[in-house]
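**User:**
Everyone, produce one record:

**Assistant:**
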Amino acid sequence: MRLQDILDVIYNKTDYKPKSSAYTSDLISLINESYYELFYLKPWQFAQKTSKIKIWDDQVTSTGSVTNGSTTITSAVPFFSGISEGMIIDIDGIEYEIVEVTSINTAYIEKEYQGSTHINAQFTIKHRYIDMPYDCINILSINHRDFDVTDTDREHYVPVPRYDDELSSLSVQDRGRIYYWLPYDDVQIETPVQAPVVTADLTVNWPAGTYTIGYTFVKQNRYSALSPTTEITLDGTNGRPEVTFKNYGVTGHHKQTWVKFSPFNEFRLFGPQVESEDVGPMTSTAPGDDWQTIERLYNNEGHYKRIRFYMRQDEDADISVRYLYKPQRLIEDYDTPAIPSQYHMAIVHKVLEQLSDRHGDKTGSARYQDKFEKMLVQMAQRELSPETMVFTKGSWDSALHPLHRTNRSQTIRKI
């Protein structure tokens, strides 16, 4: 069922379809609340994804140049890249965070360099933190696994709670074979507070209509929530949108513009990404037949999961992450819930339960709650991963695994 189909069923069941856009918006919000409640209720098989992530070994050069009191660092040879942003750089034994890379030879650190000015400094970029996929809400497993039949290098990494990490004081500096993955602080990318300035560029005419434009910050290829927006109305003869921004300095706050216009209800990618210190102006080609398939703004409000490994990887590798994900919200008429179609009515039942309760119809609310719960039983029988139980007992090799304790029994449940 598409979003419009779900709406039509609810209109028919309630025998109520006002022409108020406010009521429709409220109903769509209620549909999405019910959709997410159902999606997150259990670790359904359909709610899981597996993604491959590239992890990187340390990068080292002895051609660095640094100046006391400056945030600019340079290398005489190509050394920096987009993956360097957000990582730790060790400069002659002192660690800093790289906030922005402006070329393969130049980067900026988050605070002024405190050491002595010199050339041929030792730079070591430590890829200590691993960002999870943008739609990850809960990690289920992490392993090194290639699906090549000739591959023999397979490993499963054991999760370690933060308390055990703190208790055991697992070093962030050790490099070598990976044994564990550890949750690290989630990343929240701040939201721009200033709306973009939008004027008409008269060189090219866009189709007539009202265009709503905002932008997000981009850090380590992750988007923030959307800024306040600006509207511009075109008549088909007076140009196209041209966007200018505030200069945020060299802070790593790259900017990506998004646009929304009829007949779409969601923001879509507009033009190229610009650097934090770039104010524009920026334009884009006119919407074409492919606009429906252009990347949509994802609704995670700039929040991302991050981990680290113990030990830190000592080679470049691909890892597989299986996780529970957050689906795109239902907002366009043709959007479809990311659950098997036979369970789409569960969303309808949940919405009708809440609408009945909102209007004081306790009998109707109980009836739809019963329908919803019966469908949940069916889903649990068919859509949950079989649980595997592993019983481990006996002495473990604490020399190889510092968290393993001897003479300890443990039951591990895996999904």
